[in-house]
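User: Predict the structure for this protein chain, please.
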Amino acid sequence: MLLLSCWSLSRGFDAGPLFENVGFELHAGERVGLVGPNGVGKTTLLRILAGLDHPDEGDVRLHAGARIRLLSQQPDFAPGRTLFDEARSALDEFLAAHDDMIQTAEKLARATDEAERNALAARYDRLNELLRQHDAYHVDHRIRQVLDGLGFSAEDYPRPVSTFSGGQQSRLMLAKLLLASPDVMLLDEPSNHLDIDTTRWLEEYLSKQPEGMIVVSHDRYFLDRVVTKVFEMHANRISSYPGNFKQYWRLRQERYEQELKAYEAQREYIEKQEEYIRRVHYGQLHKQAASRQKALDRLERVERPTMIETPQMHFLPVRRSGDVVLQVEGLGKSYDRPLFKELTFSLPRGKRLGIMGPNGSGKTTLLRVLLGEEEPDEGKVQRGHLVEFGYYDQHLQTLDPEKPVIRAVWPEDDPDAVEQQMRDLLGRFGLTGDQVYQRVGALSGGERSRAALARLVAQGVNVLILDEPTNHLDLWACDALEQALLAYEGTLIVVSHDRYFLNRVVDLLLVLDGQGKVEVIHGNFDTYEMMRAQKEEAERDRARKESGASAAKGNTNSSRSNSKPVKPKRQFPYRKVEEIEQDIATVEMELHELEQLMASPDLYRDGEKVKETTRQFEEVKDRLKQLYAHWEEAVELN
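Assistant: Here is the predicted structure, written as structure tokens:
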């Protein structure tokens, strides 16, 4: 079903147009990732779609009574409300509809006029369908599900909203949007203020929703798991790509190369025609020349394609350190609770170590201990020979905000450095022209971040310690940084919540759980995810075995007092295990075929086919889930 359409949208400010002649449609079930460099107008476009801003030209149409809502970045709550009551207020529309439905049912029971009864019955059916569609018959259960998923506990429910931190209030705004379940969700950086576990829950929740949504996010892993289509904002327009982020990143390069070939082929054709016209224009073939000139005048010219510019970051060769950069033994640190304890690991030269964990788990404290800026409560850190640390602070306080950029980056121990060298260095990090003479404090967050990285290059250190280096970078700067770090000759220690970054860059991972335990993973984020999934499966197997053992023990005790053993009641009809396994194999093959179909770009040319395939995919998943449950019961009870 078509939910939203817009055409010929244009919006600009004093600095010039943000976008021009933009048009697209959004259907139910589509989850669109909106990407583009900082400052191209992504948030402005969302505000226009939500009706909070107006385009200079063009129109937005919301179809079939669809509801639309934008995730607000500024919390706005009624005074005095508790967390649970504020979350519940997102469902006021459905609660009112429920009351209306009860009143309609009472009127229907008393009505005697046939026309009135028909009208009331139709109204009752509409209200019932609305409540059923939005699962509004289980309000409190839905509220608990969403609040728990976003990291709130039952103890938080009665607390006044005003007692929560800014990050927690932002999560509450997200909870209200999810509970309201508008037909069109506009999500601007929804994973901000979320740790990895909470983000994982949000990804799973959004991927199951039937609504249409447009998501602005710098979290590439999030986009990979959630979106089914990507809109790229660049050069004042929008280009559409099917699939998730990974597919978009590949297709954009392929499309650019195809468009460049088409442009160059046309340019070659035009040049040949123009050369022919020049040669014969005044000769006997002047009529042919005039004919060709008319054809050229009518020719629709192909514009030279452009790619979003990526900074050409790279790190210079560094002095070789000892073979072991850090030797950590029995390290522990506590404040009001343990942050980490009994941490032991070795960091060889050239390794890239990642540190991840929930907010407040002690990641930055661990960095400070490794740097020697803070003493551990127990254990020791032995630093290797000729180790030179360079620190990137996530708050960007290593740069003097009052200095010009070029002076803030200039290494203090190298006063004879040539200015052109420093300008070239800053240029590789995307800071060019007059930007290098601006005050650091006047730069945007992304520009300051790139200046801080350039400062590390100027220092020439052989161990980089980076605390959340991707926080202020757009997707293209993140990609450039990752390529630069992969080519870096020294050793890397990085704290990050960016799973895509961790997956691509690190080969050793420390995972803090917030309770004092640290897990050492020899691999990247995917390795950790695989091990986590295996542990969860093992725990489920153990729980099933314990449940089976408890049931068997209960049956044994019962048999001592009753000659007839009591079996658990079946939920499914009796079938042989082998038959169910054959059905599972068939349905898994069907699911695999649908997954391949959904990964095909051709599918997304037909909106109806997309919706039908998505519906089939969800139905097959449900069938497979039921077959697994039937199989488990058959294994236990047959």
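The chain has a mean pLDDT of 88.
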